[in-house]
Amino acid sequence: MFGVDKMKSNFSFQWHITDECDQRCKHCYIFAEDNSKPIDRMSWESMLATLENCEDFCREFDRQPYFFLTGGDPILHDRFWDLAELLKSKQISFSILGNPFHLDLEICRRLKSLGCERYQLSIDGLEKIHDFFRKPGSFETTFEKIPILQAAGIRVAIMTTVSKLNSKDLPKIIDRVVKSGADIFSFARYCPTSSEKSAGISPEEYRDLLKIVDKKFAEYESSQTYFDRKDHLWTLFDFENGRFKIPEDAEPEMIYDGCNCGNSHLTILPSGDVLACRRVRNSRVGNVLKDRLVDLWLNEIEKYRDYDRFEKCSRCELLRFCRGCPATAENFYAADPQCWKEI
C-alpha cells in the first residue's frame, strides 16, 4: 500500500446542489443513464447538514474547505443565495461550474461580494458542434458573458470536453478562447457512459493531439490566458520530451501527483450521495446525510488508493506522478484507453 502525500491546504468538494439546468447536454453525466430521471435538488436542511459534515471533515484533517458549486446550474436552486451568504459568513470561498444564461453584471457583482473566485463555463467545440452538444445559441452566449464576469472581478475558466467529434477543432477552440480574454483554459477527455466502450480516440491520436496543443499553448505563452494542463497524460508527454524528470529524492512509497481520486477531493450529489469522483462510474461510497465523511474517507474510499491494483500504471515508473484518468477506462483499475506508453 502506498502512502499519500500531504493533502493540499484546501480540500475540494464538488457540490451538486441541484439537477436543474437550462440544457440537456449530450455528454451530461446526470442524465446519461436515464433521460427521464426526475430532478433532484437538495433541501435547505440537507444543505446545512452537508456543510457541517464537510467542515467536520476538514477540522479532522486540518484542511480548509473549498467548494465547487455546481449542478445542473447551481444558481437555479431557490436557496443558492442563502448558501452563498452562509459560506461568506464562514469565510469560505467558492467557485461555480455553471451556465451563462442567468448572468448579468448585477448578479456577477453579487457573486463576487459573497466570495465567488472563479466561474467555469464550457466550450465543447466550434459553434456548430458546441450548440449540437448543448443548445442553439449557447456558444455565443458563453463568450458574451466572459467580460461581464471579469468586470465583476471573477476569473473565468473555459473547459472543453474532448471527444472524437471535436478533437480536431481543439486548436481553433484555443484560438477563440484566447481571443475572448478568458483567464484559464483546460480540457478533459470525454468519459464514456456504461452503454459505451470508448471515446473514439486512439492512444496514437491522443498523443498527436497533445503535440499539436502543446505547440498552440507555446504560441500563446504571452497571452493573458493560463493553460491548465490538467489531463495527467501531460505528465507522460512531458516525461518523454524531457520536461519532466522523476526527482532523485522521490520516496518509492509516496504518491506525489496525478489523479486526485481518493486523495484531495470528493463529490456530493443533490441526493446526498458521495462519490469518490464524479467522472468515475459506480464510485458511490456513501451518503453525506447518513455517513460521516471522515469515516468514508478512512474506509470506503481506501480502495481508490490501492495503487498496486492498477493493471498498467502499477508497472510504470510514473505511477506516483500520473495514473492517467481512471474515469476513461471501463473500470477504475483498467488501463487508460488513451495512454500510449508501452509497459
Short recap of the structure:
The chain is of the alpha/beta class and 343 residues long. It contains nine helices and twelve strands.
Can you walk me through this structure?
The chain is an alpha/beta fold. It is built from 9 helices and 12 strands. It has helices at 44-60, 80-89, 105-113, 127-133, 138-151, 170-180, 203-219, 233-240, 293-298; strands spanning 3-4, 10-16, 64-70, 94-97, 116-122, 155-162, 184-189, 226-227, 254-255, 265-268, 273-275, 284-287. The strands form 2 sheets. It has a 10-stranded mixed beta sheet with strand order 8-7-6-5-4-3-2-10-11-12. Strands 1-9 form a two-stranded parallel ribbon. Helix 6 (170-180) links the parallel strand 6 (155-162) and strand 7. Helix 6 (170-180) packs parallel to helix 7 (203-219). The protein is globular and about 50 Å long.
Keywords, separated by commas or semicolons:
343 residues; alpha/beta; two-stranded parallel sheet; 9 helices; 29% helix; 16% strand; disordered N terminus
